[in-house]
Amino acid sequence: MNAYIAYKVSTRTTLPMFKNRTFSVWRRFSDFLGLYEKLSVKHSLNGCIIPPPPEKSIVGMTKVKVGKEDSSSADFVETRRAALERYLQRVVCHPSLLQDPDVREFLERDELPRAVGTHTLSGAGFLKMINRASDAVSKMTVKISDSDAWFDNKLQEVESEELQLRKLHAVVESLVNHRKELCGNTAVFAKSMAMLGNSEDNTALSRALSQLAEVEDKMETLHQEQAASDFFILAELLADYIRLLGAVRGCFEQRMKTWQRWQEAQSTLQKKREVEAKLLWANKPDKLQQAKEEITEWEGKVTQYERDFDRISVTVRKEFLRFEKEKSKDFKSQIVKYLESLLQSQQRLVKFWEAFLPEAKAIG
Amino acid sequence: MMQEGLDDGPDFLSEEDRGPRAVNVDLQTDATLQVDISDALSERDKVKFTVHTKSTLPNFKQNEFSVVRQHEEFIWLHDSFVENEEYAGYIIPPAPPRPDFDASREKLQKLGEGEGSMTKEEFTKMKQELEAEYLAIFKKTVAMHEVFLCRVAAHPVLRKDMNFHVFLEYNQDLSVRGKNKREKMEDFFKNVVKSADGVLVAGVKDVDDFFEHEKTFLLEYHNRVKDASSKSDRMIRSHKSAADDINRIASTLYTLGTQDSTDVCKFFLKVSELFEKTRKIEARVAADEDLKLADLLKYYLRESQAAKDLLYRRGRALVDYENANKALDKARAKNKDVLQAETSQQVCCQKFEKISESAKQELIDFKTRRVAAFRKNLVELAELELKHAKGNLQLLQSCVGVLKGDT
Q1: Are residues B287 and B399 in the same domain?
Q2: A158-363 in CATH: which number?
Q3: Is A182 on the interface with B (CB under 8 A)?
Q4: In a domain, B124, yes or no
Q5: B160 with B202, same domain?
Q6: Which of A178, A342, A354 is closest, CB to CB, to B245?
Q7: Which of B70, B42, B38, B40 is nearest to B53 (CA)?
Q8: Same domain, B284 and B390
């Protein structure tokens, strides 16, 4: 099956690094995954928090490709579109990532070379691949230095927050389902009320029952819209942040890996020095020369790795604080948006019942 | 363990619940005989209702008195009306349904079993929820038993019934045992015979337009009320589930909010508080829909069945009358047992005419009552829905205002 869905990515910018002010390109889902791969390879070793792309969902995709025309596949495409949009917006909000030529190319270039190796890999899967080695490292609870207490605390916070968000996400999904159920049941009830109104032989009561059926019909629409809000505003926000917190954890693990590399280099250096000392005693001049060279090499490495560690620590700290700020802004704005949607629902509800009340009073 | 605590508890009716309760039926309060359920007690497997009577009638020894009755005794009273030939021409007020706390009890038990897997706050919250649910079911069953008695007390003929007076006044156990297996089987077969018979009887076209119309009307109405009733139940259940989810969202947001004292945590706490309040309102909306809509439909399902039963009895009497006529003609033709046939025919005729006369009035009253009850409940429903929506709106507006102001 060669059919695929293409998403239109439109940019409007005043940045000089782009050729035009407004431009659009067409990208497919694997292109987004490809971008993520490229960015991860380049930046995750620096301790950057790379925003993860949305999950692949094989079931949903197949349905769409076969051309199944029902609301669930339309939902799926919309869900993915919105998720990809949020993903890109997070990428371009990141000051370092925006400077990356791959990002510029993604936004600007008309034809993008097909990203390979992404057809079975999801964003999360790739992240796991990069951080596989660090899984063993993260199990260590060695205290590195005084400033490490900060990193320790933050990692713990991240882990407990991720737990709570997962819990919250599960409940919100349950709410979405119950609201969809309520929507269906309300529609069915409205019909049965209309039927009852038809058989009622008192005219005024019959009319009132029909009106009630109409109110319930309107409620059905309300519930449907509310369920969409629950999902698109709340559930997706939580899903995004569960993924992002995973990326943050990955960052911390990268730092640990760097520290470990430095430690290992230090211990290797120590061993080399011991060898040198032994050779001094044994009086083997050429072997001694080699040993001295190796010591110099490893001294260089130790210095390098220490610098790397310091650098990554600074970056991770900076990234984390930036992330917290973004998260705070994001949650506040999205939740307020959600509450406003609830507000609008209630306003409409008030209107429906205000219209019905005189009908009910007119009975008899 | 929790079950015991709840079952052996003191009575659940608060002060506001005593006195004439909002009933599904719009009844004239008559000073000569007023009946209500002033109190109720929930014990292990049964509910004990305190039936309170105020009367100026000479039949009673006192003007005001109370007795304690259980569900089976209400059923006994109802069945005694149904079995009384004298009352064949009346709509017998439908019997109240058996108090059913099984579902609620099961939930409480599950909660007890799952105590270890949730936080103390969650557990206390859920326990309060379930206790409130139990209380709501309890209040409903009290209301339904009360409506039955009030209907009887408001009926010009049934209120004079001997058994009714005994029910109200005799302050000992009526020693009415529930039906045993054999009696239940007998009932079952009686109903089967009745339905088959009912089909035959319904097939007989009525000369009287009024009754012919009523037959058609009631059949369709009953079926549609049944449908509406079950669909309303399902809708309200979904509503309650959604409210429960909002409750859990509020709890989780609260946990998130207490992790730290950052801006975003304070934000979570405010939103959690909001959801706590809105979900209470949502739960009230579902409860009010249950009371004003679902219960109304359930009641008229039972009433319309009682009306159908009346039509059936009249139809039966008509068939008997027609058969008696035929038998009389035959007897006259053969000139054998004519007197017997004449008497039999007269009895059938009187029975049929008696039923027809009262049935007509009963059906007209049924319509009046129905219209009044629907009006009352639909108006109250609309007013409550409005009240709750406005309440929700205010909460949301003020919270959004605060949150936007903070950022």
Answers
A1: yes
A2: 1.20.1270.60
A3: yes
A4: no
A5: no
A6: A178
A7: B38
A8: yes
Return the domain boundaries, chain A.
1-122, 158-363
Is the Cβ of A153 closer than 8 Å to some Cβ of chain B?
no
Do B319 and B230 lie in one domain? The reply is yes
The per-residue pLDDT for B25 is 56
Mark whether B249 and B334 lie in a shared domain.
Answer: yes
Whole-number Å distance between alpha carbons of B404 and B407: 6
Closest residue by Cα to residue A218 from A125, A354, A22: A354
Residue B242 lies in a domain: yes
Segment A260-273 shows an average pLDDT of: 92
The CATH topology of domain A1-122 is PX Domain (3.30.1520)
Distance from CA of A210 to the nearest CA of B (A): 12
Residue B15, pLDDT above cutoff 50: no
Long-range CB contacts (< 8 A, 24+ apart) of A244-248? A244/A49, A244/A51, A244/A52, A244/A90, A244/A323, A244/A327, A245/A158, A245/A161, A245/A162, A245/A165, A246/A52, A246/A124, A246/A127, A246/A162, A247/A49, A247/A50, A247/A51, A247/A52, A247/A127, A248/A49, A248/A158, A248/A320, A248/A323
Token output for A214: 């109409």
What is the per-residue pLDDT across A326-339, written as a single tens digit (0 to 9) for each? 999 999 999 999 99
B112 assigned to some structural domain: no
Which residue of A lies nearest to B243 if distances are taken between CA atoms? A175
The CATH number for B98's domain is 3.30.1520.10
Pick from B334, B311, B333, B315: which is nearest to B323 by CA? Answer: B315
Residues of A whose CB is below 8 A from B256 = 161, 164-165, 168
User: What pLDDT sits at residue A238?
Assistant: 94
Any B CB within 8 A of A200 CB: yes
Domains held by chain B: number: 2
Give the pLDDT confidence score for residue B177 in this predicted structure: 67
> B111-169: per-residue pLDDT in tens?
888 777 777 877 887 888 888 888 888 888 999 999 999 999 999 999 999 999 999 99
What mean pLDDT do residues A51-80 have? 69
Assign A35 a pLDDT band (cuts: 50, 70, 90). very high
What mean pLDDT is predicted for residues A4-32?
90
Q: Mean pLDDT for chain A?
A: 86
| For residue B10, pLDDT beyond 60 | no
Q: CB-CB: which of B274, B379, B400 is closest to A361? A: B379
Residues B167 and B260 in one domain: no
Q: Are residues B248 and B328 in the same domain?
A: yes
What pLDDT is recorded for position B20? 36
Verify that B398 and B286 share a domain, yes or no: yes
Residues of the domain holding B320? 198-206+220-406
pLDDT tier for residue A70 given thresholds of 50, 70 and 90: low
Report the CATH number that the domain containing residue B258 is assigned in CATH. 1.20.1270.60
Return residues 221-280 of B near A (CB < 8 Å): 221, 224-225, 227-228, 231-232, 234-235, 237-239, 241-242, 245-246, 248-249, 252-253, 255-256, 259-260, 262-264, 267-268, 271, 274, 278
ipTM score of complex: 0.84
